[in-house]
Specification:
Elements: E1 13-22, H1 32-40, E2 46-49, E3 52-56, E4 62-67, H2 74-96, E5 98-101, H3 111-114, H4 124-133, H5 138-141, E6 145-151, H6 155-169, H7 173-176, E7 181-182, E8 185-186, H8 192-197, H9 219-234, H10 245-248, E9 253-256, E10 261-268, H11 273-291, H12 298-303, H13 306-319, E11 324-325, H14 328-333, E12 340-341, H15 342-353, H16 364-373, H17 376-384, H18 390-406
Antiparallel strand pairs: 1-4, 1-5, 1-6, 2-3, 3-4, 6-10, 7-8, 9-10, 11-12
Helix pairs in contact: 2-11, 6-11, 11-16, 15-16
Length: 411
């Protein structure tokens, strides 16, 4: 049966990734395959738990929860995620003395010694990635993110959606940064996951480009400008043709033409499903409002250069919500008359959109809490102090694991 195409904002797909760690020590536990076997009765790549599916990722200590197909009701989706997270957490606790750990990076993990790739089924893709890029790195095996999938029905809708998403991508670390620590140390960067993400495929630069996608607004232009260079450049490293360009594309938002959707990939995961859906609903609402032209015209959105947006993005990676936005395009787009901190800009956007008929209306309390408290990375630094020791780090990340299980905010 042919799949019915969804139009703009007629459904949403959300994916949440978590680490599996020991409850006492927080050491990573490479047991995702055993967890899936306990849920499904056999080792498979994915098992359905009703409205939520659970699946493997590249490495054995990461597990993914995702909605079972596009869904329109974000409130119902949030409840389903929370229910299944608790179910899996209970299983982890009872069988392995383990738990799920939120945030975008494990604060103490050494990927060179702790990485084990998923070894089952059709794992040839993972093995090929590892051979080319060496996946024992923070940008590969120590990262957890939120993905949002937004549908389009035709080329016109694709172009409008892609234009809006490109603008929003540059601003995402200002609301979602949650990875301030690398192997127990501060790096001066609030979103280390994205710092690594931006560099981990530089060996074949066309795979990730500028992270912010190019100005392409039709499928034909995307095939020519994005997929063709990837296919050309990967050939010498993958003569068997195992890696397809649609899988390889690692820009901050990627076109999934096989399912007529664009996937946003630049959100750090938060401390709880409640916090994540505050972020997700605000991001979807901002994209939708841009598509509908309430800020700036579609033609103006098409003109913004990805290199300029990348400059904003890199500043946001470093400073999160404290990043100063002085880019003329973004200031004009969001009706600012003077430079403004990214956290304040998000707050103004929320104030406007929560009074209109957008998804964030149902999550305005959660989104407001996030913006008033600062990013999770900022809150962690405030509570950990300037030179945190491993025991203190474990204490606070144990609290984050409790927040995840109970659906609460941290700090």
């Amino acid at each position: 049966m042919k799949r019915k195409k969804l139009g703009l904002f007629e459904g949403f797909g959300v994916e949440l990734e978590y680490m599996i760690v020991d409850r006492d020590t927080l050491y990573v536990r490479p047991i995702c395959d055993q967890v899936i076997e306990a849920l499904a009765g056999e080792i498979v790549n994915e098992v359905s738990l009703g409205r939520i599916n659970v699946s493997n990722e590249l490495v054995l200590h990461v597990i993914e929860f995702k909605c079972n197909g596009p869904q329109k009701d974000l409130l119902r989706m949030r409840s389903a995620f929370q229910d299944q997270l608790r179910r899996v957490n209970q299983l982890l606790r009872e069988r392995w003395n383990a738990q799920l750990l939120p945030t975008a990076m494990h604060p103490l993990m050494n990927p060179l010694t702790d990485t084990k790739l998923w070894p089952h089924g059709q794992n040839t893709i993972y093995e090929t990635y590892n051979r080319i890029f060496d996946c024992r790195g923070h940008g590969w095996s120590n990262l957890q993110s939120v993905h949002i999938n937004l549908p389009f029905a035709n080329d016109e809708e694709f172009g409008r959606l892609h234009a809006a998403i490109r603008i929003v991508l540059a601003m995402l670390p200002g609301i979602a940064a949650s990875s301030p620590l690398v192997e127990g140390k501060y790096t001066g960067c609030l979103d280390n996951r994205l710092a690594f993400y931006s560099q981990n495929q530089k060996k074949i630069a066309s795979i990730i480009g500028q992270v912010i996608p190019e100005r392409v607004f039709t499928r034909a232009d995307y095939e020519r400008s994005v997929f063709a260079p990837i296919k050309r450049d990967i050939a010498a490293f993958d003569p068997e043709g195992i890696l397809e360009e649609e899988w390889l594309n690692s820009r901050g938002a990627i076109a999934r033409f096989e399912r007529d959707a664009i996937e946003i990939r630049l959100l750090d995961i938060q401390e709880s499903v409640a916090a994540d859906f505050g972020v997700v609903s605000l991001v979807i609402s901002l994209v939708q409002s841009l598509v509908e032209g309430i800020w700036i015209s579609y033609s103006a959105q098409q003109e913004v250069d990805e290199h300029k947006l990348r400059e904003v993005f890199l500043r946001a990676i470093k400073s999160g919500g404290e990043a100063l936005i002085d880019d003329p395009f973004l200031l004009t787009c969001f009706h600012q008359t003077a430079p403004v901190k990214l956290q304040q800009l998000w707050a103004q956007i929320l104030d406007r959109l929560s009074r209109l008929d957008y998804p964030v209306k149902d999550f305005s309390r959660e989104a407001s809490q996030l913006l008033s408290r600062g990013t999770l990375a900022q809150r962690l630094i405030q509570n950990l102090g300037s030179d945190p020791q491993p025991d203190l780090i474990r204490k606070h990340y144990q609290e984050l694991a409790r927040c995840l299980d109970q659906g609460q905010f941290y700090g």
